[in-house]
Amino acid sequence: MVLYKLEDFDPNYRDTFGDEIKGYDVYADRTDEKIGSVKNILVDESGHFRYLVVDTGFWIFGKQVLLPVGRSSIDHNARHIYALGFTKEQAENLPEFNDSLKVDYDYEERVRGVYRTPSTETSVQTSAPIGASAPLDPTPAYAAPGATSNQPRNASYNRDTYTYQQDSSLYEMNQQDHQTLKLYEERLITNKNRVKTGDVTVGKHVETETARVSVPLEKERVIVERTTPEDAGTVVSPSANAFHEGEVARMEVYEETADIQKKAFVREEVNVRKEVERDTVNASEQLRREELDVDTKGQSVVDKKV
């Protein structure tokens, strides 16, 4: 039979098993003396819990020993594990365990031999049940097999035919002291998905139009008027030089012409941005929730702890 550490057998055991008992303090149920703490859990090839690896700390000078799960009672509220009928003498007689040790049939027989002693069996039968105790969560992957009768003390054991059922008192959890009932409820889980609803493209294009403009222009012209003076016919004085050959009158003539040009000017600016509008979507669903029903008969005493 091969044994595995729980995290090696199932790396996701927390999703299946739920409560994490590694690190729980371990106490002797009869003396309430602290023994040590749970360092690991060993399971078989079927996933059934077989041993709790207990680090005894200063109790037995840091020795690690194996505690069969059938000899444990768990109080999840206090994060305590009670070793049923466990004594310091047993801890000293148990073979030491370490992470590099190969757990084979011979090693397990040395462990079982310590727990099979008559004093151990008596202490388990007389040990008081632990209030508010709960099991190593009996989910299908890790539940112990169905209860069977204890093996007679004088039974013979063979490595080829041995099964854990032969030591039911060591490996089967006391279902009377180890029970867990999970209550479930439904909850609304909301999520938001970002969905594309469209595109907005902002660009430019050029439009052409015909512009008409009127420009007033001025231009000059020369007017030549010929008139008869009032003294026409009067004799010119002999001393006057009346005749001048080549005499001319000169005038410059101007006119305006239109100078029309095209120039670009900034007409307006366009800013493109996004604004977020917020809205609330209301939804309603029928949710179910399990409530605990306690039906007692006779004079049973029920201690409800929240």
UniProtKB/TrEMBL annotation:
Gene Ontology annotations for the cellular component aspect, listed alphabetically: plasma membrane light-harvesting complex
InterPro entries assigned: Bac_photo_RC_H_C, DUF2382, PRC-brl_dom, PRC_barrel-like_sf, Stress_Response_Assoc
Alphabetized Pfam families for the sequence: DUF2382, PRC
Any GO BP annotation: photosynthesis, light reaction
Domain DUF2382 per the UniProt entry, residue ranges: 181-294
Organism domain of life: Bacteria
Domain PRC-barrel: 18-83
Biased composition range(s): Polar residues: 117-128, 147-158
Region (Disordered): 117-158
UniProt-recorded name of the protein: DUF2382 domain-containing protein
